[in-house]
Structures are given as C-alpha cells and as structure tokens.
Amino acid sequence: MSPTTWGWLVLLFPLLGTITIGLGFRTYSRAAGVIGTAAIGLAFVCAVGALIALLGRAGTHREVVSSLWSYDVSAGVDARLQILVDPISVFMMLVVTGVSTLIHLYSTAYMRSDEGYSRYFAYLNYFVLSMLILVLGGNFVMLIIGWAFVGAASYLLISFWYRRTTATGAGIKAFVINVLGDVGLVLGTFFIFRHTHTVSFLGSFAATPHVFHTDSTDLVAGCLLFLVGAFAKSAQVPLHTWLPDAMEGPTPVSSLIHAATMVTAGVYLIVRLHPLFQLAPTAGEVGAIIGCLTLLIAGTIALVVTDIKRVIAYSTMSQIGYMIMGASAGAYSAALFHLMTHAFFKALLFMAAGSIIGAMAGNQSLDRMSGFRRAMPFTFGCFLVGGLALSGIPPFSGWLSKDAIIAYVNNRGGIYEVLGILGYLGALLTGLYTFRMIFRAFFGEPSPEARELEHGHIAHAEVPTNPATGEEEDMEVGFPGPEHVIAEREPAMKIAMGLLALLAIVGGFIQLPGVSHVITTFLGSSLADAPLASAAHEPSNGTAWIGLIIGAVIGLVGITLAYSVYVRRPGTAARFQAALPWLHRFLVNKWYFDELIDVLVVRPALAIGRFVETVLERIVIAGGVTGGVTAAVRSGSAAVRRAQTGVLRLYAAAVILGLSAVVLYFLISST
Amino acid sequence: MSSLILATAHVKGPHIDWAELSPIVVLAVGAIVVLLAGLAGQAQLRRRVIPVLSLVTLAGAVGTEIWRFPHAQTIVAGALRMDDLGLIVDLVCAVSAAAAVLLSLRAEAPREAGHGEFHGLLLFSVMGMAVLISAQDLITLFIGLELLSIPLYVLCASEYRREGSLESGLKYLIIGSVGSATLVYGLAMIYGATGQTGFDQIARVLAGGGANGTLLGDPLLLSGIALVVVGFAFKASVAPFHQWTPDVYEGAPTPITAFMATATKAAALAVFLRFFDVAVISEQTTWAPALATLATATMLIGNVGALGQTSLKRLLGYSGVAQAGYMLSGVVVGTRLGVSSTVFYIVAYLLMNLAAFAVVQHQEAASGDDRIGGLSGLGRRSPALAWSITIAMLALAGVPGTVGFIGKFRLIDALVNGGYGWLAIVLVVGAMISLGYYLRVVAAVWMSPEGVGAATGPTLPGNVAPVAGGSPELDRLPYPEVVAVGVVFAAATIFFGVIPGPLFHFASHAGAALTGLF
User: Fold this and answer.
1) Out of B304, B413, B500, whose CB is closest to A71?
2) Which of A46, B87, B91, B194 has its CA 20 to 30 A from that of B269?
3) CB B222 to CB A669 under 8 A?
C-alpha cells in the first residue's frame, strides 16, 4: 500500500472510535475504553505501515500528497481534503499515536470509576483525530482545521469535570488563548497566500523563493503571526498562562495533551513551515528569544510551585521553550528529537504523578506528600527515570536530545550563543526543580497517606473535595470517581508506564553524535531544502560531545543542589524564603503574568466594555440599532401577516398593483 | 406501444426523436396506466398496486433521464430542447414526486380522491413540468405550464371533505388562473413584437437579425416581458405575487404541499432560467434590475413573514418564498456561473425541503395538526425524524456542513462575479433573519414536553417513553416510509454539504447547456 493509504487509515480509526463511542456513550460501560484504546492502537499500526511504505521509496520521493476530494474552489482557494505524508508527518504520527495508545491504556484503569468514562474516551479519541489531522494535513486549510479541533478537544478535556468551577474556568481560559493563536495562524496564512496564490504546502514552499526575498515584509509578518499561533498552542510567554490552569483536567489528559502532543504543535508548525522561516531570519530570532525566555521563566516558577502537576506543567513549558528555541534557530531535527523524547519522559512523569495523586486521595500538594519511596516502589522508579531524563543525566534520553538543541544553537554564533548559554542555566534549574519534586514526594518521613499505603490501604478522604478550592465534589461527574487507583495495583497502568520508562531510558540512542543518526537521516529528505539544516550548520561530533558533557555536569550540579537543600539540610528552602521574601512572592505569583495580562488586557477591555455598555450599548445599540432593527423586522412581520388576510379579493388587488409596477418599470425603460 | 408508434409514423408531422422524448413519453404512458388501474374493482388492489405503478413510472422517468444525460438536442420541430438543464430539473421533479408518493402511502388524500385519480394527476403534473422545463417555444411553454398547474389545482383540493383543502384548491385555481392569463397575454405580446414563437428565433430577432432591424427597447416587447415576469413569478411564488403560497401550502394535503414546494418551484425557476437566459438575454440590462428588485422583495418578505408563524406548513411556505428569492438572484446575473449556482440550489432545496416535509407529514398523521409547538419532545419520541428536521432547518438557514451553505455560497459567488454584490448582501441579511424562525423549530424539536422529566428524574435510562400530554397517538411509531424519506434526504443534505464536488459537476453541466451565455 502506498504511504498515503496508510495515512488515511491512520485518520480513519480514531474517527471511527470517536463516532462509535460518542453515539453509544450511554450504552457502553467498559467497552468504551477497549474501543478507544484499540482504535488508537490500530492507528499506530497504520502509522508504522506508513513508515515502512515511505522507507521503501527513494530519498527524493518521500513527499507524497493525496486528496480525497475538493470541498470548494473559490477566489483561488482550492480547499481540498488533502494529506501530506512525508518524513516529518510520519515522525509526528508515530509519536502521537504511540504515546496516545499507552495513555489510553493507562486511562482504562485510571478513569475506571468515573461516571463519565465513555464520554472521556470519546473526547480522547476526538483529540487524537484532531492532532492527526493537524500533523497530516497537506495544506493550510487542513492545518487550520486540525489546529482549531485540538483547541476544542483540549477545552472539552480540561473542563471534563464540568461541575468544578475551577475546571470550567481553566477550560475557558485555555480556549480563549488558543483562539488567539488560531487567529494568528489564519492571518499568517493570508499573508503567505497573497503571494503564493495557493494553500497547499508543497505549492507554497515551491513558490516561496520566487515570490519572497530574505526578510520580505509580508513574509516576516506572516511568520510572526504563525509564531503567535505557535506560542498560544505551545504555551510560550506571554500566552502561557493557560497551561498551568489546564492541570484541572484528568491526569492522563495532562499527560497526553498538555505534555506529550498538543502543546508541541507549535514546534511542529515551525518545522513544517521551515521553508518560510528560512527566508525570515528575523522571525526566527524572535521565536528563539521567546523560547529562551520561556524556558527560564518557567524554570524559576517551577522552583516554588507546590502543586505537583503544576510543577510538571511549568517544566513542560520550559522544555517546549527549548524546542521552540531550537526550531526557530534551525535545529529542526534536534527539536523534533527532543519533542519525541520529551513525549516519552513527560508522559511518564505525569502518569507517575497520577499514581501518587491516587495514593493521596486526590490531593496534589507537595506540602502534604512525603516519603512515598517505600510504599510505591514502582511509581518511584518510573518517576525517577522520568526525572533523570528530564534533568538530562546520561544515559537517559533527555540528555541527548536537549543538549543537541543547545549545541546547535551555540554553534550558530551571534545572539544565538547567548541564548545557548542561557539554555544551560535553564538546565541547572531543571535539575533543581525536578529533584525538589522527587525529594519532597518520595524521601523523608512517610506522610500519613504513605503510611496507610504501606499497610495496604489507599487513603480516602471522608468527603471528596476540590483541592484547589475546598468545595465538595459532585460524584456524578467524577473526580476520578470515588475509588482511587495507583499504578502498583493496576496492570494496565503498569504496562503503560513500564513501556514509557523503557523508552525514556533508551529512546535517545537512535541519535548519538558520531555513532547513530537515525532521525537526521530520516528527516533529511524533508529538510533538504533548508540551508540551516545542512551539515555546515550542524555542530561537529567533537563539539556535540563537549556539549553533552557540559549538559550532564550541569544537570548533576542541579540535582546535587536539590539534594543538599531538600535532603541533607531540610529547612534551607524555608530560610531562603525568609531571606528573600520578595523573590519568593514574585515567583509564587508566577512573575505576575496573570496580573500583567489582567492589567494590560482584561481590565482595559472591561473598562471599555463597561463604557460601551453604558453609553453605546444601552442608548445607541439597544435603543437605536437593535431596537430599531428588531422593531422594523417585527413590524415588517406584522405587516406581512396583516396583508395575508386570506381574502382573495385583496390578493388580487395586490397582484394588480405588483403587475402595474412591473409593467410600468418596463415601459419606462423602453426607448 | 409499438403499434402506437407505427400509427403516428404515418401521420404527416414533424420528425419526432422518440429516444429524446422518452422521459415525457414514459410519464404520459405511466399516468394513463395509473388512471386505468384506478378503475379496478377491488379497493385493496387499488390501494396496493397504484402507488407501486406510479413509483415504477417515476423510476422509468428517472432512468430515461439518466440515460439521456449529458446531452443536448432540439426536437419536435424546435418545440422542445432536451438538454442538461432540462434533464437535471426533470430529475428533481421526478424525485420530488416519488417522495410525495411515499409520503402519501397511508395519507388521507389518495383515499378520499381515489388512488387512480390522485396518482394519475400527480404524474400528469410531473409530465407538465418536464414539458415546461424543456420548452423552447412560447406555445409549448404555455402548454407545459397548464399541464403542470391544472392537476395541482385538483390535487390541492383532494381531501375534499376538509374545508381547508377545498379552500386551498379554490384559491390556487383563481390566483393561478390570473397568473396564467397574465402569462399568455405576455407571450402574445412577445409574439406580436417579434413575430416568432421559438426561443432561438426570438433571441436572433432581438440580437438584430430580424427583418425590421433591432427590437431592443420596443415597448410592446418590454410589456410582454413584464407580463411574462409576473406570470412566472406566480408559479415560483415571488413577492409580491406570493400571497397564495402560505394559504395554499397550509390547506393542501402535506404530500402535495411537499411536491408543490419543491417540484413546482424547481420547474418555475428552470423556465425562468431558460426564458430569460436564452430568449430575451439581449434585454438583460432591462430585465435584470427588475428581477433583482423582485428577488430583494421576495427574500425580505418571505423571511420576515415566516417569523411569527405557528403552523409548520405556513412557515415552510414563507421559507419557500424566501428561498425562491435566493434562487431568483441566480437568474439575475445571467452568466453560466449563475445558472449552475441556481441549479445547484434547486437540487439543494429539494433535499432540504423533503427532509422537512417528511417530518411535517408524520406530525400531522400523529397529532392531527402541524403546530410548531407540537414538535416538542420529538427528539425523544423519534430521534431519526428529529435529526431530519434539525438538519433540514439548519441547511435551509445555510449552516456550514450542509448543502444549504454550499448552495448559498455559490449563489453569492455568482452574484459577486456578476456585479450584483448588493444582492449578495441582501441574501446574507435574509439568511440572518431566517435563523430567527428555523432555530425556533429546532428548539421545539429538542425541548422536552413540559412536566416530563420533572417527575421521573434525570437519572433514569434514556429509553423510557414519556407520556406526552396523555395522548397515545403522539407516541405512535412513525411510518417507516416517512422516516425513510426524512432520513435519506437529510443524509443527502449532509453528504453533499461535505462532499459537494459531484453535485457541482452535475450542476455545471446545466450552466454549459445554455450556450448563449459566458
């Protein structure tokens, strides 16, 4: 079968899964989980099929386009249902379907006692479908559709427990910021379309060198607007505030959407549109600077947050900062490499966190967790593997991929060298906050919940409450149900976490400087047209190894710092806090970004809104325009109905009048 | 049959290409057979066999139409032109009639009027449409129009024990006669001015090929065109000649209403297309503003008038007026794009309306009236029908993902390209107003009847049948054929809304059929 046939099949199975589960969600109970997992599993199998089919083709023929049908052709836009199967999309497909399958598997156990079990799997399948449309789409229209769909899926899943006010608020926030990104993407497409006159990717890319020169105004504007889209979806400063709040969703959702797949869509976007970004170095610099800023800001906030899921969320922001920085600088294969390893270890970390949260009866605060090492050996092992990979310790996968990005960025010189060095600072922070989390949750005196678990019981709260607000939970819409689950007792969770742990350990070896270069070779044919991806810009093996060693040392220093602060001399953290209260306040308030947005955007908007409401709306619009229009329509409706007397004579009169008017018009226009 | 052909062959007359004429012949023969079958003694036999015979006839018509497609030929000494425009609209009429037959299987009307008469008249009306659509000559045009109309006058009154049905038939007859008289007067004037009855000859005369020079701007000709506009406007229910529409639609038996709303309108618009875009295309600068004004009035009056209606059939009547305005605007531009957009919309309109009328038929059969409020709780009683009418309403309003959206989009495209941007704006404003009444129907469908649910509580399994106002009829299962009509056409509405390509291709044949356009 051709690669595109496999590609369509990859889309088909999640679609079928969504429809089957969605239509019958009242009738299935357990079956929804099986159907959902199987659908995504089959999609993964087909993605592998696409990979094999693509590898069977010569290197220069690995971009295959297929259209099912054209929706409409108007004003030069040929809106086709079209997919593009090339190394980039196959790579993304494999990551998305692979990780999704494992997370679906994990969810079958984790969400078992939730009342919305079937609804959950329908949403989750829908998300995978949307994400696959996003990565497989062969033109800007499909990209925009997928982009908007994942935003909707993310909203549905963040607000999954819709009786929680915090969850609905978080969902709305995420949706609004994502829509801002959608607008950026659509407007950016217009800037490109104006010049290339086609919406298809390959057509646009082929035309780009002819219609744009380096740093053409419209090209830079288009790329910057694409970056707005990427920043919103990938939670980059200043459009990042939705991601920590998105942790209100179920933990597997955080693992899949807000760590492994959706939030990396921005990175995919830059890599996919690399022929455009190649010609707009200014936009590339903006992207790299924002990525670097994000990775630092998120790293510092992660040092002080006490909600375990939010710590991981900030860590996600920070890691995506690396990817955005790398992709903007031109390290496409390194960015995608990090995207893949990050998907493994970050999904793993979230799953392990979900297991602890289960043991804590739903509580997510690090302040209350302690000493789970003995009670939950498997979870501890997985969390440790994920943490080591995240901190970039050899030989774990994150070490190879993150340092590949930094080495490339350093190698580009100029402003990028500064960004690379700041990247190392970020690596120090990463080691510190990751092991702060590990040492606080797993080491020290066992907390009451850990003790209970050591005696074979999972703790249960008397009355389930929302940890964020303390309000009582509505059990009809879950909060993972009245039962809590931990990985130690659930084979499905164990399998999913075990496989991811394995991948987090060995996943990096496919790209080892001087030894193996699977990813660079595979992506090579897609990136052949990118000068920045040529060998001239890649760091030499020696430089790469020096970078790896520096990265490893910095990661270890971070861990050692964390060890001395949180294990050897507990209380140091409190002393810091007392000594520098302003810094702590600054970080706990997340650099005041929410407040900043509040002051800069929300409040002025509200003030304008109030003004408009009192002055314009009440008097002009409601009184004049709306009132006038509705009154006109109403009275028109009344007039038409009054004319409709049912009396034949009057109808005939109307006919004569109309007839006379028409004849009169024609006679007047005669010569 | 063959002896008939042989017999006519001896008569000295114009050459007739029977293969080309086959759709009309099939309908004529079928109608006569159905009428004769109506004489059969056994009522059971009549009730069972005649609908089957009409369906077979219609299937034969559809078959021959597909057989001749794509094609273009002028036959019977220039009286008829069988081309893709005609074939497509014939197809629409035949499908609409088939749906009407299905909807009337267990309805009151055929029983009252007699099965043979009811179905025979229906088939004759379809035949009249086929003649009208293909008419290439003023005389044929008038014959087609009358053959279409007269059976309909009777069909409207076919439930003759019901006052509303009789009133509907009488009103239609009187107003329709005024329309026909106007039309025939107009045709006579055009003949007087040009000395020709064939469309092509008239076009040639107008283009300056006549003996006495150009006739452009001739008062006699223009008065004729004005009267023809009015005559057609009656049939297409274009404002201000629409007033019979809501009354007649409400009173007529629902299957007949469905047939009139879709097939008659399709035929009337097709003849609009052919007459204005072939015969008098040279006068476009004169008639286009007039038609544009009429279209504007129609869109506004139809949409505004529908707002306060409580009867579903009246609402659909006004909605049909508004939709006629949309389609008429495709005639105004006088380009191939305009023709194909109009034809696309005619097909779309057929799909959307039949899905809606199936639900109206069920509603009337179940509760005896067609109040919009009576639909409440339909979502629980019959999800299939509830979805059908929901899709139909959303499509009529032009919600994306349905064929109604694509249809309006193409019309707007054609209008903007043809230099009638302002008419496109009117169309959009009309569609905006229309949401006000279409969505009311959707809301009624999905709202529970009051009181149900409060007593049972929300946690019961969803399949518990509600007791709707103590009336057992409301809970009766809908007839399968009615559900089938609703579901099939609703599914087609969605299908062609998502994959419009094939339908476009089909409609663009119609645009290409009128060779005088660009």
Assistant:
1) B500
2) B194
3) yes
φ/ψ of residue A163, rounded to 5:
-85, -10
Task: Give the helix ranges, DSSP H, for A248-306.
Answer: 251-255, 265-272, 274-278, 281-302
**Is residue B63 in some structural domain?**
no
pTM: 0.78
Residue B106 has pLDDT above 50, yes or no: yes
A23 touches chain B (CB under 8 A): no
Cα separation, B206 vs B213, in Å, equals 9
C-alpha to C-alpha distance for A355 and A246, rounded to whole angstroms: 19
Chain B: residues touching A (Cβ < 8 Å): 171, 174-175, 178, 182, 216-219, 222-223, 225-227, 229-230, 234, 240-241, 243-244, 246-247, 286-287, 290, 293-294, 300-301, 304-305, 307-308, 406, 409, 413, 433, 436, 461-462, 498-501
End-to-end CA distance of chain B: 42
Answer with the residue of higher pLDDT: A655 or B328: B328
**Looking up tokens 């103590």, which residue turns up?**
B470
Inter-chain CB proximity B226 and A637 less than 8 Å: no
Do A19 and A141 form a contact (C-beta atoms < 8 A)? Answer: no
Which structure tokens are listed for B158?
């076919």
Mean pLDDT over A534-550 rounds to 81
* B80 SS3 class: strand
Residue in B290, B293, B308 nearest the CB of A641? B308
Mark yes or no for CB contact A648/B174 under 8 Å: yes
User: Which ipTM did the prediction report?
Assistant: 0.80
Instruction: Give me A597's structure tokens.
Output: 């947005």
**Total tally of structural domains belonging to chain B:** 1
Instruction: Tell the burial category of A601 from Cβ atoms under 10 Å away from its Cβ (0-12, 13-18, 19+).
Output: exposed
Neighbours of A214 (CB within 10 A): 12
Length, in residues, of chain A: 671
Q: Where are the alpha helices (DSSP H) in B17-77?
A: 18-37, 43-68
- Give A178-190 pLDDT, tens digit per residue: 998 999 999 999 9
> A98-113: per-residue pLDDT in tens?
999 999 999 888 888 7
Lowest-pLDDT range, A307-321, B284-298, B445-459? B445-459
Taking alpha carbons only, the member of B361, B373, B354 closest to residue B440 is B373
Q: How many helices (H) and strands (E) does chain A have?
A: 28, 4
Which structural domain range is residue B391 located in? 289-452+474-518
Q: Is residue B313 part of a domain?
A: yes
Which of B286, B284, B273 is closest to B336 using CA atoms?
B273
CB B334 within 8 Å of CB B277: yes
CB contact under 8 A, A659 and B462: no
* Identity at B202, one-letter amino acid code: I
- Measured between alpha carbons, how far is B378 from B129 in angstroms, rounded to an integer? 35
Is B69 within a domain? no
Residues 6+ positions from B407 with CB-CB distance below 8 Å: B326, B341, B344, B345, B348, B349, B398
Cβ-nearest to B225 among A72, A637, A666: A666
Contact A658 B241 (CB under 8 A): yes
Mutation site for B-interface testing, chosen from A68, A637, A665 by largest number of B Cβ within 10 Å:
A637
Query: With a CB-CB cutoff of 8 Å, which residues 66-85 of chain A face chain B?
Result: 69-72, 74
Burial B482-497 (b: 16+ CB within 10 A, else e): bbebbbbbbebbbebb
- Contact predicate B187/B194, CB 8 Å: no
- Give how far B366 is from chain A: nearest CA, Å: 27
- Token match 């402003």: residue? A415
Helices B284-306 & B421-446, crossing angle to 10 degrees?
20
Q: Could you tell me if residue B457 is inside a domain?
A: no
Is A655 in CB contact (< 8 Å) with chain B? yes
| Residues of A with Cβ-Cβ distance to B498 under 8 angstroms | 71
